[in-house]
Specification:
rod-shaped, 2 helices, mainly alpha
């Protein structure tokens, strides 16, 4: 494992063996390979040290970080719930309005169809009754009025005839011979 140099700042510790020699004017292939290995080792060592630092930070700040994460989770949950409730409420209201519109249209269409059927039925019944010779309501009203007038006329005539009978002397009836 790598050790930290106590004179350096936290997070920037380097081992003396991982320093990369300057690449001046030498074109030695072995030197280039050693430099690549040194850089690779340096990168691996930095990743290792970052992981160790994260573990140390988590151990030191663990309970507080956990509580912070729980609070953040609750805030996110409440925001999600309120957003979800709002979306569901809006969708429900929209669906309800659409349904009411469609039901109203269907109701109007059904009423119009029923009115048309009623008119058609009435016309056909009236035509059938006319073919059978059944008088219409207007014809019955005219006949009823005429019958009432005739009844009045008969009553007047009967009343006049009754007055004449009362005024004429009554004759005895002749007996028939045996």
């Amino acid at each position: 494992m790598a050790t930290r140099d106590s004179g350096r700042k936290k997070g920037r510790a380097r081992s003396a063996s991982t320093k990369v020699p300057p690449q001046g004017g030498t074109r030695d292939p072995q030197a280039g390979a050693r430099a690549g290995q040194a850089q690779l080792l340096q990168g691996v060592q930095q990743v290792w040290l970052a992981g160790m630092g994260a573990i140390a930070r988590a151990q030191k700040e663990g309970p507080g970080a956990f509580q912070d994460a729980v609070l953040d989770g609750l805030r996110l949950l409440n925001q999600s719930r309120s957003t979800a409730q709002r979306v569901v409420r809006d969708a429900f209201e929209s669906a309800q309005e659409t349904l009411q519109t469609r039901v109203g249209g269907a109701r109007d269409q059904a009423q119009e169809t029923l009115d048309n059927l009623e008119t058609l039925f009435q016309n056909r019944v009236q035509r059938a009754m006319h073919q059978l010779g059944v008088p219409t309501a207007a014809e019955i009203r005219v006949l009823t009025k005429r019958v009432a007038e005739l009844n009045e006329s008969v009553k007047r005539i009967d009343a006049r005839a009754g007055r004449r009978k009362a005024a004429a002397p009554s004759r005895p009836r002749a007996r028939a011979k045996k």
